[in-house]
Specification:
Blueprint: H1 2-6, E1 11-14, H2 32-48, E2 53-56, H3 62-65, E3 77-79, H4 83-93, H5 97-104, E4 114-118, E5 125-126, H6 132-142, E6 149-150, E7 153-154, H7 158-161, H8 166-178, E8 182-184, H9 243-248, H10 253-265, H11 268-272, E9 274-278, E10 285-292, E11 295-302, E12 308-313, H12 318-322, E13 328-331, E14 337-339, E15 345-350, E16 355-359
Parallel strand pairs: 1-2, 2-3, 3-4, 4-8
Antiparallel strand pairs: 5-7, 6-7, 9-10, 10-11, 11-16, 12-15, 13-14, 13-16
């Protein structure tokens, strides 16, 4: 580790950390000696290379991953694997119940630690953290062709999983960017790259980045041959999907995502804030509050292909209701303003797969 730290790297993503040590007569998972070693490793890094980060890759339930934060003396960050498939489940089923349940099962972590969330990565979309029935349903919905499956997961990229539907892709990213945790984006997802299920193993989601439309390697390499070929499909080939065209098109998803990230950075509630799920009487809506100090954002997602009328109760106190500053909230993505009614609720009309990030920072909510 010292070799790479001396080279200047910012930190390590530690793979399959629950199985770091082996012991006869056990399944080698989550052993005490693993935690003892991690504490030594963290102390060495803090003492000799302060400011570097350790990220735990433990494909486990949240209460199990919690152990790898220790008392702020093991990992600073840990992947939240179970939330990822539940975002896909919520959108496909137009039902937020599973996502709500896993968030309720997510424990508090030390203040100096953070969850890490993602929609896709370089491996399969793992279904290890769902039930057998849910896994079967996910395969049926998202991987009907057996070539799309690998291990206990799905070897497809985000855009094909979302039917290349910009509304669904933006919706999924809105959920990623507003749930607790530091979001990680997989290369190519910012331009809606596709996959190649004809390639073996996990290589179908590891094709060269499509920088431009030039042949043969889309600006990725000048070599005669690359390890994996560039995607050649009519819908996702570099003649249709590449960085250069996305940068030139102000309406591209690339620019929409950059704008969403920019707005997220303006609100500390997303990075540091408390999380509270809001009940709104319709499982096809996913609503939550993020709050940090006076910075409070109410997030509302329509998971369905139907128009929805929503009434969101913000639980304001009588003092807040009487305040002239509490008359409305504003969508930080579009600038649209919505009145807060006398009972402390907001009424919204949502198009299919539409979402709002409502800035409610001019008043306080109970419990924050």
């Amino acid at each position: 580790m010292r070799f790479w730290l001396n080279m200047g790297i910012d930190g390590f993503r530690v793979d399959a950390i629950p199985y770091l040590f082996e012991r006869e007569g056990t399944n080698c998972e989550n052993l005490p000696e693993t935690h003892a070693y991690l504490k030594r490793m963290r102390k060495m890094i803090d003492d000799e290379f302060p400011g570097r980060v350790l990220l735990a890759e433990a494909c486990q339930l949240p209460h199990q991953v919690r152990e790898y934060f220790g008392d702020s003396d093991e990992f600073q960050m840990g992947f939240h694997f179970p939330v990822m498939p539940r975002i896909y489940m919520s959108i496909k089923a137009a039902n937020s119940t599973n996502l709500k349940e896993i968030m309720a099962e997510t424990p508090e972590i030390p203040e100096s630690c953070q969850w890490v969330t993602f929609l896709r990565n370089h491996d399969e979309l793992t279904l290890e953290m769902v039930s057998k029935a849910e896994r079967k349903w996910m395969w049926e919905q998202y991987a009907p062709d057996a070539r799309m499956r690998i291990n206990l997961g799905i070897r497809r990229r985000l855009a094909p999983l979302m039917d290349n539907d910009r509304r669904k892709i933006e919706l999924a990213h809105s959920m990623l960017l507003t749930l607790p945790g530091s979001p990680i984006l997989y290369y190519g997802d910012e331009i809606n790259m596709g996959d190649d299920i004809e390639l073996s193993d996990r290589n179908g989601v590891r094709t060269p980045m499509q920088w431009d439309s030039t042949l043969p390697h889309a600006g990725f390499s000048t070599a005669e041959r690359t390890y994996a070929p560039v995607i050649k499909s009519a819908s996702y080939g570099p003649h249709r999907v590449n960085v250069r065209d996305a940068e030139r098109d102000p309406s591209s998803f690339y620019h929409i995502l950059r704008f969403m990230i920019g707005q997220r950075r303006k609100h500390s509630a997303f990075g540091f804030g408390n999380f509270q799920w809001l009940e709104c009487g319709d499982v096809s809506l996913a609503c939550w509050i993020r709050s940090y100090g006076v910075d409070t954002v109410c997030v509302v997602h329509n998971l369905s292909a139907d128009h929805k009328q929503a009434r969101i109760e913000l639980n304001m106190s009588s003092q807040q209701q009487d305040s002239p500053l509490s008359s409305c909230c504003q969508d930080i993505l579009t600038g649209a303003r919505f009145p807060i009614e006398s009972d402390g609720s907001v009424r919204l009309s949502l198009e299919p797969y539409q979402f709002y990030w409502l800035d409610c920072s001019t008043w306080y909510l109970h419990g924050f």
